[in-house]
Write a structure and sequence with these properties.
single chain; alpha+beta; 2 domains; five-stranded antiparallel beta sheet; two-stranded antiparallel sheet; 8 helices
């Protein structure tokens, strides 16, 4: 199974039936992903890690030998992120939380984040949840938007451009897009001071981090409930001093 399919939630792994996310332009999440079914696969993944669900991780998606990254249907599956976490730990021979600290949090001058772990004998859960202060999310977002620093880029430029969705067409973003574990959308409301595409990461109950690298703008929103995706950015733009 190509990692590009796992990164884009197009792996074809049937783990949580008909799972999706409104913001991606695809189907809404069903009961299995919005409410934890204590007898379901997500509960087993929580309490036992990947080993507890490995026997049922089968892909129903056709993989083309010449274009392995093309095709597949989007389905937001937490197990995809769990698989990616296991791949990183194997590749770096380090716990996932240590990789995050060394590769991202520390270079961004952010304090260490706390990652959920259901048992001391289990690794952290890559798909949920990562706890950090708003100021540290802001520092990390700025670091990602800048692609690290001039002397020490976070990613090679072409990879960073893909990570920021620059290969996606604007017309494909009006209903939302998803690639490389990142959400994408576009601001196109007539008469607003801010327009253009943006990348964002969604957390629990409306906690969202927005990145608009071309506008040199990052926004971190914490809250107790989900807010309208575009309205927050429009409101932020109206509150900023207008450039002459």
């Amino acid at each position: 199974l190509p990692l590009c399919r796992v990164l884009d939630m197009r792996s074809g792994v049937v783990f949580q039936p008909q799972a999706g996310k409104d913001a991606s332009g695809f189907d809404a999440k069903d009961f299995e992903t919005t409410k934890v079914n204590v007898f379901g696969p997500l509960a087993r993944l929580h309490t036992g890690g990947l080993a507890a669900v490995t026997p049922r991780l089968l892909s129903n998606s056709e993989i083309k030998s010449r274009e392995p990254c093309d095709g597949g249907s989007y389905s937001y599956q937490n197990v995809n992120t769990a698989i990616l976490g296991a791949v990183l730990e194997r590749a770096y021979a380090q716990p996932l939380e240590q990789i995050l600290s060394e590769k991202l949090w520390a270079p961004a001058n952010a304090s260490d984040a706390e990652w959920r772990r259901y048992d001391e004998a289990l690794p952290v859960t890559p798909y949920c949840c990562l706890y950090a202060r708003p100021i540290d999310w802001l520092r990390v977002a700025q670091y990602l938007a800048n692609n690290g620093t001039a002397d020490a880029p976070f990613l090679p430029q072409n990879v960073w451009q893909q990570f920021m969705g620059e290969n996606l067409a604007n017309e494909d973003l009006s209903k939302g897009g998803y690639a490389n574990q990142v959400y994408f959308n576009i601001l196109d409301r007539p008469g607003e001071a801010l327009s253009g595409r943006f990348a964002y990461f969604m957390g629990s109950r409306g906690q969202t981090t927005y990145l608009m690298p071309d506008k040199k703008l990052v926004v971190v929103r914490f809250g107790g409930q989900i807010q309208r995706l575009h309205s927050l950015l429009y409101g932020v733009a109206r509150s900023l001093p207008q450039q002459p």
